[in-house]
Specification:
alpha+beta, 2 domains, 4-stranded antiparallel beta sheet, two-stranded parallel sheet
Length: about 375
């Protein structure tokens, strides 16, 4: 396999990836223990698959016993403008940069499949490909492979692309040794800790997912805790604050991948007017669709309550009789943020007469 690494590099660049590195398929004991502590403290919240996949995440050979090398790939998804600017418009339905255009899973997987075919055709090599949805410690191996380092916000930071790298992996059944000693570039900077609206980053390199806005708006299937709702602001899917503030983003560039160019221009009213069929159509090719209509509507309604825009009241009221108690409960909270006292009392009186769900009744009780 003469010139193997050179040929791999050439093929990967041709497919549009921006970074490449190689790692042995082993996780050190310190990292295993740190991950176990994360789970023991329940920082992962309801993401119980992280517990179930512990053995696979800490040993790639449990995923594929033939793996000898992990190729880690980075895809730049850098936005044109700093996403922090979007926080200022309280009427804006703020969607995380990575979810504003085509679902990156499908975009990257399409490239990986072409690469997989190339390995088979050129070298008769069987490979396995992964992008985000498999039990792999992506950030750990990205650091080992030299793509960057794990910042204090726990995400990968790159000298070339700042915080804006999607990660993907190719498992190879042959050894390709390339040692990278990536030096942590965070230094004494703690901007990502300081900017987190909900204080989810507990200390350097430690995060409590249950407080993270990305977790709350995406993974969390129940009501968003009352104590955190106002801190979410206008965010309706994910959060980019800790990534956006990173000083290394001064070296970042807008992505060249047209399918990943951010295009988030819609306000809360636009989404409040949706019905379920509109949601499915509008986000048919986006990762937003995976949280489903009710959770998305919950998020939009909470953000509407934070907007201070009384013009949204009548549109929130359109959802007060929604079949989902999750949506009705969010409506109660949001309306109580926007309505005058007399209107609140009238609404409460009307809802208590017909509401049977204990959770919604609890919302009414808490916000009286």
């Amino acid at each position: 396999m003469k010139n193997l690494k050179k040929n791999i590099q050439k093929e990967i660049i041709k497919l549009g990836f921006d970074s490449i590195g190689y790692s042995e398929p082993y996780v050190d004991e310190k990292t295993k223990q740190r991950y176990k502590n994360f789970l023991n403290k329940n920082y992962h919240g309801d993401m119980k698959w992280l517990e179930r996949h512990f053995e696979k995440k800490t040993n790639p050979k449990k995923i594929w016993d033939k793996v000898e090398t992990i190729i880690v790939l980075g895809q730049n998804y850098g936005p044109k403008e700093n996403p922090l600017l979007l926080n200022k418009d309280k009427n804006h339905g703020n969607i995380s940069i990575y979810a504003q255009d085509e679902d990156y899973h499908s975009v990257i997987k399409n490239k990986l499949q072409k690469l997989q075919d190339w390995f088979k055709d050129k070298y008769n090599l069987e490979t396995k490909i992964f992008v985000d949805t498999s039990p792999i410690m992506e950030k750990y191996f990205a650091e080992k492979a030299g793509l960057g380092w794990q910042g204090k916000h726990t995400n990968i930071v790159s000298k070339s692309f700042g915080s804006w790298l999607f990660l993907a992996e190719i498992f190879l059944p042959i050894k390709i040794n390339e040692k990278e000693n990536m030096i942590n570039g965070c230094g004494s900077c703690v901007k990502c800790l300081e900017i987190c609206p909900t204080n989810a980053i507990l200390s350097n390199y430690k995060i409590d997912s249950k407080r993270c806005i990305s977790y709350l708006t995406i993974e969390n299937k129940g009501p968003i805790p009352i104590s955190l709702r106002k801190l979410i602001g206008n965010k309706i899917y994910g959060c980019d604050d800790c990534l956006s503030i990173c000083p290394w983003n001064k070296f970042a560039t807008e992505t060249d991948e047209k399918k990943l160019i951010s295009n988030d221009k819609n306000d809360l009213l636009f989404f409040l007017r949706f019905r379920e069929e509109h949601f499915k159509t509008y986000f048919h090719n986006s990762s937003v669709k995976r949280i489903g209509w009710n959770r998305f509507l919950r998020n939009v309604i909470i953000a509407s309550g934070n907007s201070k825009n009384k013009k949204l009241i009548k549109y929130i009221l359109n959802h007060i009789n929604n079949k989902s108690s999750l949506v009705r409960g969010a409506c109660v909270w949001s309306l109580f943020q926007l309505m005058e006292e007399k209107s609140k009392e009238k609404l409460k009186s009307e809802l208590i007469k017909k509401e049977k769900n204990n959770y919604v009744l609890y919302e009414l009780k808490m916000l009286s």
